[in-house]
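2024-03-11 09:14:02 INFO queue: dequeued item DCA17 factor, len=520
2024-03-11 09:14:02 INFO validating residues
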Amino acid sequence: MGPTQKPNVCRQLSRRALGFFSRDAGVVQRTNLGILRALVCQESTKFKNVWTTHSKSPIAYERGRIYFDNYRCCVSSVASEPRKLYEMPKCSKSEKIEDALLWECPVGEILPNPSDYKSSLIALTAHNWLFRISAATGKVLEKIYLASYCKFRYLSWDTPQEVIAVKSAQNKCSALARQAGIQQPVLLYLAVFHVLPFSLIGILEINKKIFGNVTDATLSHGILIVMYSSGLVRLYSFQAIIEQFMQQKLDLGCACRWGGTAGTVGEAPFGIPCNIKITDSPPLLFEVSSLENAFQIGGHPWHYIITPNKKKQKGVFHICALKDNSLAKNGIQEMECCSLESDWIYFHPDASGRIIHVGPNQVKVLKLNEVEDNSAQYQISEDFVILANREKNKNENLFTVTASGRVVKKNFNLLDDDPEQETFKIVDYEDELDLLSVVAVTQIDAEGKAHLDFHCNEYGTLLKSIPLVESWDVTYSHEVYFDRDLVLHIEQTPSRVFSCYVYQMVCDPGEEETTNRSCE
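2024-03-11 09:14:37 INFO prediction written
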């Protein structure tokens, strides 16, 4: 248990007004967020459901903006009541936005246009166009035509806010083609761009001849990650691949001749040729086998988490050093639980190097430490544990009486994720307020009830609990976002009906009235 002393909001506001932090903008921002955190967590603060809506198309949330109808309509959730920011013109199914990323101006870079300093939505359409759209107005600021030789479908950050990767749908060989002995040479494509201003790095093909039967591939922090159905995961340097296998440097908007065809790079119908074709096995950086390709890298120093590649090992996690593959001391983490849904583990997004391990009835925050007598080895230890609020001795004996009057005792055990017991469903981190948010659900009578708890990220102390007014069906898909003074819950039914519930921070009106009367 850590210190319980609360910051004095009035004192912080007074110090800010007197200019105590004026020489350091970062200190001012941290002070402001500290004040907001104190207001969010104080007992009198409530979160009120201010808006609810339903949709037949997916609903997405990004940094205070709610997107409907495949990103065509944008609603701001920052105001006291959500209001529409813009609605783009209706388009055909072939022109709809399939995926999008929010780009925000990086600090310390000089950009060519004043509009570039404002947030933009990087959007991928169904007909292979890449748009940069103003996040405030919906106006298309830039557009790039990708290609006609494949179907691009997914957007992801290679380097957050700097480099994006656009991945194609995987080319799968049909049954007739397999019977005829026809092999599909190219499995998928990755188009890689610097953003703001847009500049092409290249389009890479993942082919079967070099990589074999790949099930998926992606880019992350300059590393090409290739996955196989066997559970094998291989890592390659993307920069090394560019230097060795790029056929020709291409620039957006410039004339180009490729394969007997001439056109402008990034404009229809020419698009962007595939200019990175691997003809030989690139240098392998790392290789590991893991169940369902589950593989994560993080920690200080670098460690990775895998599950041994056997079905009976599901729910067992090995934490190993990246430099020599050695297992950390206490590096086998297994949560002793009996549940329908398996537990999950990941590196803490706060860059502390810690690890979060979530089960149905507990959240463990683990840390990496040097072994006392061996500085070359690291060990895993518990930082703190968050436990579900459950009745003790729920797994008990059941007594029945037979027709002859004999009492029979039957032993029975409840599942750890039994719906009548409080069960953890979602764990997230609010980086600006430095709070862990935990969604816990309990089945009450015929419906589930959920509450969102805020825990101190440093000590795990429970600071605030917010009940969600809507029922929680465990058979639906759910997403919950906690963003400063906003809580947003998006659910999807099996019949693909989407609902969005918006909560905003308000002061308890009952307490306000009491205060006003006492002042009078």
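2024-03-11 09:14:37 INFO annotate: The mean pLDDT is 87.
2024-03-11 09:14:38 INFO item closed
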